[in-house]
Amino acid sequence: MRKFAHSKIGSAVALSMLAGSYTLAGSALAQESQATDKEDTIEIISISRKRPESLQEVPIAVSALSARDIETAGIERPGDFIALVPNVNIVDAANVGDTQVNIRGIVSTRDAESTFAYVVDGVLMTNPNGFNGELLDIAQIEILKGPQGALYGRNAVAGAILVTTTLPSEEFEGSVKIGAGNAGIKRINGIMSGALSDNVRGRLTASYNSMDGHYENILTGRDDVVDYLEDTTIKGRLMWDVSDELTLDIRAGLSKVEGGALNYNAVFALPSFVNAFNQPAYNANVNDHEFTFAFNVPGENEQDTTEFSLKADWDLDGYDVTGVLSYNDLEEYLLADGTSASFYGYEVTPQCQTDRATLNNTPTALGGANRTDLFGEFFAPFGVFPPGVEFTGVYGPFTPTACDGYQYQERSQSDFSGEIRVASDDNDAELRWIAGVYFAEIERDVVVAYGADQGQGFLRQPYIAPTGPNPTDLLFNDTFDTSVLSAFGQIEYDLNDKTELAVALRYDYEDRSVSNNVPNVSASGLNVNTFVNGVLGPINPAFNASPNGIPDRSRSFSQLQPKVTLSYELSDNLNSYASYGVGFRSGGFNSIGTKATLDFWFNSSDAGNTPGDAVNAQLLVNDEYDKEVTTNIELGLKSKLMDGKVRINGAVFRTTVDDNQFFEFFAGPFGLLRAVTTIEELEIQGFELDIAADITDTFKVFGGLGLLDSEIKENRNRPVTVGNKAPQSPDTTYTLGFSYEQPVSDEYWVTTRVDYQYTGETFFHTLQGEQTPTIWDFFGTLGGGVPPGPHPQSFENAKRDSFSTLNARIALEAETWTLAIYGKNITDEKYLQEVIPTPEFGGSFLHPSAQAEYGVEFTYNF
After folding, report:
1. What does UniProt give as the signal peptide span (predicted)?
2. Which helix (DSSP H) or strand (DSSP E) does residue 15 occupy?
3. Do the domain assignments include residue 213?
């Protein structure tokens, strides 16, 4: 094939060394199985059952990417590799760490635990926000589908994602990569690795990435303040062979990220307004929206991450012992514009009045500034009047005026965890086993604050007194403490030469508590909606029911998570399996005051004197939510044809989810509110197919197909949604691609890779066309510009259209360097990244996806 070895990171030997993340014996076995002649197909070794096994033999639905795949596909962040896997999707919208991953119709939930186990070099990462980081120096990625709770524990209700970084090398080596692209993209990273002594090897990776972004703030005229990103990361790894039997694996990392936040627009979904005002924009199709960013509050997100882990592997007589200790700390805040302007909260503040004098879209013939560039045509659907016409306009969120206030959030977490496990060390034995215990201590601080924008700048802290520049009017501020303890084990037994029975069981126990940090003080008085019957209310409505202080809360959750797998070798090249598995993620708490706020504004009261009496939404949103349990039955086939040059893997599955945790977003006169609710029963069934074919030694094709059929069986919070599809779960996804590696001389090589991805139509809410009440029913009772109700919402136009993207990369490679050009979404497909429906508001918040990206990279290996 080639006369020179490829990049050390992408070599077969380096790829196989990933198994050393678990045991030295596993590393040796994997290297032996993969260190084949380059003319042969390199077989990926899976570590999905915490021991090295052929990907084509492990009885789990696994999609895997080798180091070479990662390099040629230009994978830099999790969204890049998730796009290549059928029945797996990602939403990357609000801020850098706020990703939602959907595996087989089960989506990770904002403000709750993740739905998949994220494991890096054998260490379980406990912070959901830690997933969406730069992927540096990666040897292999595996995506395990279906519940993996038995071995991977808490939160693995949908699957697991295993990332293995490259081991430190014996010989000194390294690389430097620089890159540049459109949208102000600049990248530089470097790697150094080698022996520090006879028994210590080290590896250091550093990276700096920045991007101005694809979108412009038309108010300020700047193109580097919307979807911008700056990421600085440094990671180190040491492997210390303490003795022939004991090896220590020490990892540490620091990361600082700055980026844009909450780059949303909004649309209405109010059919009655279309008729009342003869304006179709009040029920427009979300896919037809033209995005405008004109916020006056700087959208910013900052994250500082520190991580450290120590893993010890003992190779003892007949068994191996692995111990892991891990510490992670994330400090994060975000600041952005607010969205309460449509409800006139800050209508009469001096800054709102000043802004409206010049920042309005009232026609000049009516005495206005006619700023249609900022708000669109007058009342289509937004209409902003100059001062003198009060409590009448329709402002919209995230506007150039101070009338919408601001929002401030924190999502900080520190955690300490550990695991010890013992495993048999003979992978060829008739009976193989593994057993272990795990613990974690997690502290998470969650802040959501809303307040007045007085044009005096912003203090970046949870509470601002009325005398401050940006006083707080609504505050949720809670500290969540979680203690986790679990025990697990698995036995794999060969019933005969062709049949294996694997039985795994895990017991997880979580003790969770939450304490409130909100001071018992009144709002600033600047927001008219904080007055109830002429009385200024507290900054958290929960104080109305608990004037002497909001009590702490605590609950415990536990679950047995079994998994039984029967695998059978139909022939030398065809393996089958059947499995039954259970996954679990803990219940938890919404911010204290969530229920009180929603009841006041949206639910009928006994007293009959609240806005909720007019709305009567009959919501069942509480300040806590139940645990989620997933049960999965699966049948799968894995095959190798034509001497292993064609690999076809398929699986069918049926999953039942009890108390599926679902993120709900509420908007109203109070501002914005985030809450976790539950869908009591959800059924999902589907099919997956992965194909890879080595057409020649240099030309390979690959693809995958995912089909889902989901149905909500019970939803007490919104009973009208029974029969609808699972949120954020397209029925069809598929991928298709090829790679071509061709020598152009004895010294140079051209590598080309093209990937096509298709994602079907997607609903983002349980409501998918059913009409339910909105806050406008209350405003219709007050007279003014809102006609009498009812004014129900209808999300018939809130479904994201299907879309497809095309990525390509072509590289000229030599023994020591690579020059590549690449393009992502090269057809510049315009599609929505996220739709956040807010039913009681009567509309949705929309986030666009990145536009076409292209650039050039140069890598030098030494």
Report:
1. 1-30
2. helix 12-16
3. yes
**Residue given tokens 């960013």 in the structure block:** 293
| Alpha carbon 730 to chain centroid, angstroms | 16
Tokens of 403: 């009338």
Which of 104-108, 267-271, 336-340 shows the lowest mean pLDDT across its residues?
A: 336-340
- pTM recorded for the entire structure: 0.90
Rounded to whole angstroms, the Cα distance separating 320 from 421 reads 8
Which pLDDT belongs to residue 342? 64
Q: Supply the DSSP symbol for 43.
A: P
Find the CATH number of the domain harbouring 554: 2.40.170.20
Over residues 480-524, the pLDDT tens digits come to 999 999 999 999 999 999 999 999 999 999 999 999 999 999 999
CB of 710 closer than 8 Å to CB of 766:
no
Residue 413's nearest CA partner among 437, 440, 451 is 440
Region for residue 170 given its phi and psi (left: phi exceeds 0; alpha: psi -120 to 50; beta: otherwise): alpha
**Residue 307: its H or E element:** strand 300-315
Name residues whose C-beta falls within 8 Å of residue 624's C-beta, 6 or more positions apart in sequence: 553, 555, 587, 588, 589, 590
Collect all residues with Cβ–Cβ distance below 8 Å to 282 and sequence separation of at least 6.
268, 270, 271, 273, 274, 381
Is residue 262 a contact partner of residue 299, using CB atoms and an 8 Å limit? yes
Question: Coil, strand or helix: which one is 172?
Answer: coil
Rounded-to-integer distance, Cα 365 and Cα 368, Å: 7
Q: How far apart are CA 189 and CA 203, in angstroms?
A: 13
Is residue 646 in some structural domain? yes
Alpha carbon separation from 507 to 146, 201, 295, 585 (Å, rounded): 18, 37, 49, 12
Other Cβ atoms closer than 10 A to 719: 12
- The pLDDT value recorded for residue 675 is 93
Would 377 be classed as within a structural domain?
Answer: no
| Beta carbons within 10 angstroms of residue 507's beta carbon | 16
Q: Which domain covers residue 513, as residue numbers?
A: 8-344+394-861
DSSP letter (8 states) at residue 150: H
Q: What span, in angstroms and rounded, lies between the C-alpha atoms of 395 and 401?
A: 9
Identify whether 48 is part of a domain.
yes
